[in-house]
Every structure is written in C-alpha cells, then in structure tokens.
Amino acid sequence: MLLYISSNENIGIFDFLADEQGMIIKKFNGSFQLKQFVIHDMRSLTHYAFLAIDLTALRDIEDEIIEAIMAFKSMYTSRVIFYVDKVEGNEQLIGQLMEQGIYNIVVSDHVEIQKEKIRKATGSLGMSKRDTLNLLNQEDSSLNNFRPDYRFLQKEVKVALTGVMSRVGTTTMAFNLCHFLSGLGAKACYVEANGSHHLAKIIEGAQNTITKGDTTIHNGICFMDLYGESDEEFDFIIYDMGVVESKVVGAIKNKCDVGILCGTAKPYEQDAYIKVNQLFDGIQVYRIFSFVHEAEHRKVTEEYGEGYFSDYTPSLFDSEKNSDMWMQILNIFIVRNTGIGRIYE
C-alpha cells in the first residue's frame, strides 16, 4: 500500500501504479504540515509500504520537514518517496533529505521519465544514493559538483567471507559489509553460501522486507541463498561461506575477487587456524579478528600474522562500524570522487 500526501495539482502522479501493479493507493490532498500529520494526525502508518510526499503540498519550513522525517523514521519502516517539481530552489532540502537516507526523490516534468523514476522508487531495491544524484544531475546541468561521493570501478565484484570455526562473526561481518557498501551508494547482494539456514530466520525478524522471486529486499540490499536468482546487476556480491573447508578455498581461489578469513584468535582456535592457513597457502586472503581486546592486538599479530581487528558490532545491520577497515580491503574497487558530493554547505 502507498499513502500519498499530495497537492491538488499533482494528485494523479502515482495513479498508474494501481493499473500496472494493482497497488492500493490512499491519498490525502490539500495543504499540510508534515510534522503535525506524521506525529499527531495519523494514528498508525505501519501497514503502508510507501509514504509518498508531494513537496508542494507542505507548509513546513525545511527544518520542520527534516524533523518530521526523522520522527517518521524513528517510528515506522515504510519507504519514503518525495516528489519534487524542480531542483532549482530546493537544493538544500534535497541534500538534507539525502543526509537522512532518503534517496527516493523523483524530479521530472516529462511524464514517461517521471513514471520510470516512480517505478524505480517503488521497486524492490528502490533508488540508491548514486541513482538519485545522477538523476538530479541530469535535471540541472548547472549542478556540476552534484555527484555521488563514490564510484565503483567494476560490476559484480565477488567477495567471499569464511570463518576459521563457527561462531566467529562471519555472518555479522558479511551483513555489515553489505550495509557499508549500500551506504556508499553501491548495489549490494548478500548470498548465504552455507548450510546454516540463518538467513531465513534473520529476514523473518526484519521489518519492511519485500520478497521478489528467490530474493528478499531489506534496506535496499538483496538477500538470497546460494540457489537464488536475480535479474538485478550488482556492484558487489557478498558470499557468506560459513566455516572453511577445501571447496570453500577452491571457490575463493577460482571464482572470487576478494577472500576474507574471519576468526577471534582465541586459544582453542589456534590448531584450526594453523590448518586453515595451510589450505590458503599461496592464496591472498584478508584476515579479520573479532572480539579481541586492544591490549591483545600486538600479541595476536605476533602469533597469527598481520590482519585487521574489527570493532565490536552487535547489530547485523550496522553500516558505520569498521568502515575504515572495509575501505582498505576494497580500495581497488572504490574511488572517491573529487569536488564532491553534497549540494549544500
């Protein structure tokens, strides 16, 4: 279901979705204060997958709009879509919306282009940060610096994570890596390439998921098992390969661009780690040690060799922790643009 807060002039913009997709659309048209509407007027918005907002329908000043969006995101998981009639004069607000993670911003006067953008915004993955910046850049050629913060040098980069043993944080690291990449504007896909069947339970407990064929979309990231298929083209595919075994080593060597070995450097892991190191002889893998106190870093490095020490991340959906580590590991695939990114300063 889609809830549309609309001006009288733009009331029919989303109607084609009902014809094409059978989407149920509920409309409120007129003039509104978004903060009042979100916090006080609507008792519950939990059953709406999308909240679409026509900017011309709002009486709020820019700061109030941002406050309303922050309040909405703290209470609900619906995807927010803004319809903006033009870029000129709205640069600062658009930048602030994107700072809040609102990338589904539709800007176009051409009907067919407008429809295509709405289809993307309501699609399984939604609009990424890069999509939105690129689209806005096309709308106004004067915004020469209005570009994504990052660009990605290769499509379908395959990154495999595997653990010395079970329960060493491999799945958490794989999830975190997906969210880190998505936060940069990359299209990321998580593949459960092991027999744990944890993914189904994780997704079952997540809110605001969209199922599409063999895949589940959550927070703009595609999740699937090893036998799933998707028509989407991704920048990065993250394989959670479970505990190391010979076929995992072979897959990393022959089919993947990056291999990452996860461990905790606990004493009971040492024998397993020695065996795993032998399996990876001659194969480049990055080593990540989790749950290691800072005072133990030097000792672990002396005993196990060079590696990265991850910060503690209890949340599977964390995109911020260990960002420097991820950037160092994937730096050959990611380039930061110069003269970038934010259209307001």
Automatic annotation (TrEMBL):
<dbReference type="InterPro" id="IPR027417">
    <property type="entry name" value="P-loop_NTPase"/>
</dbReference>
<protein>
    <submittedName>
        <fullName>Uncharacterized protein</fullName>
    </submittedName>
</protein>
